């Protein structure tokens, strides 16, 4: 949406006054698993299993409106994201089913206490110290004061997508 991109530009512009190397994300998603490597012959059975496990889930809304700073596990990248403030329970239920499929294939499951979020911008290195505190408060003020942010940051979950290589698989919710 045009308004979302406008909000993104405001946030990244302000955050760059603290970390000039920040780059805006070009695609947006909310992860329900870690990145894993699927062997080629696992792809079809993995996708079938996901489809079966996710078939009973209804559509739902979540709200991602809390600005938060993240680093990846090995602290080589820092991210600014919007954390989910409503819809957490439904996302945990989805993760539980995705984790079961991952376990079937001996793959690592999701984090035990996940912070569901949509990454907005990133930079190389652990620069979380520069982005937390005053910067984070200013970014949250921008989100809170943005016209229609309550509607803009409300996301309807109609499908779950799985990416394997350059292929996308879609699982519609009821």
Structural account:
With 174 residues, this protein is α+β, with helices and mostly antiparallel strands. It contains six helices and seven strands, in the order H-E-H-E-E-H-E-H-H-H-E-E-E. A five-stranded antiparallel sheet has the order 1-4-3-2-5, sandwiched between helices. Helix 1 (2-15) runs antiparallel to helix 5 (134-145) and helix 2 runs antiparallel to helix 3 (88-104). The two termini are 24 Å apart. The model has no long low-confidence stretch (mean pLDDT 96). GO terms for molecular function: 3'-5'-RNA exonuclease activity; lyase activity. This is U6 snRNA phosphodiesterase 1.
List keywords for this structure.
28% strand, two-stranded antiparallel ribbon, 5-stranded antiparallel beta sheet, single chain, globular, lyase activity, alpha+beta, 7 strands, 174 residues, Usb1, 3'-5'-RNA exonuclease activity, hydrolase, lyase
Structural class: alpha+beta
Compute the number of strand runs: 7
Oligomer: single chain
Low-confidence stretches: none
Topology, element by element:
Elements: H1 2-15, E1 23-24, H2 43-54, E2 60-71, E3 77-86, H3 88-104, E4 117-124, H4 128-131, H5 134-145, H6 149-152, E5 154-157, E6 159-164, E7 167-172
Antiparallel strand pairs: 1-4, 2-3, 2-5, 3-4, 6-7
Helix pairs in contact: 1-5, 2-3
Q: Short description, anyone?
A:
It catalyses: a 3'-end uridylyl-adenosine-RNA = a 3'-end 2',3'-cyclophospho-uridine-RNA + adenosine; a 3'-end uridylyl-uridine-RNA = a 3'-end 2',3'-cyclophospho-uridine-RNA + uridine. By secondary structure, the protein is α+β, with helices and mostly antiparallel strands. The protein has helices at residues 2-15, 43-54, 88-104, 128-131, 134-145, 149-152; strands at 23-24, 60-71, 77-86, 117-124, 154-157, 159-164, 167-172.
């Amino acid at each position: 949406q045009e308004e979302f991109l406008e909000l993104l530009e405001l946030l990244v512009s302000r955050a760059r006054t603290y970390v000039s190397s920040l780059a805006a994300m070009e695609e947006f998603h909310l992860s329900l698993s870690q990145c894993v490597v699927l062997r080629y012959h696992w792809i079809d059975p993995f996708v079938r299993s996901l489809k079966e496990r996710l078939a009973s889930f209804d559509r739902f809304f979540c709200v991602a409106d809390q600005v938060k700073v993240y680093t990846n596990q090995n602290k080589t990248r820092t991210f600014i994201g919007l954390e989910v403030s409503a819809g957490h329970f439904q996302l945990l239920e989805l993760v539980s089913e995705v984790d079961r499929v991952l376990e079937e294939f001996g793959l690592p499951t999701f984090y035990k206490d996940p912070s569901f979020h949509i990454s907005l911008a990133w930079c190389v290195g652990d620069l979380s110290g520069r982005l937390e505190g005053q910067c984070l408060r200013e970014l949250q003020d921008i989100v809170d004061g943005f016209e229609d942010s309550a509607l803009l940051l409300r996301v309807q979950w109609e499908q779950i997508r799985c990416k394997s290589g350059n292929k996308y698989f879609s699982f519609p919710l009821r």
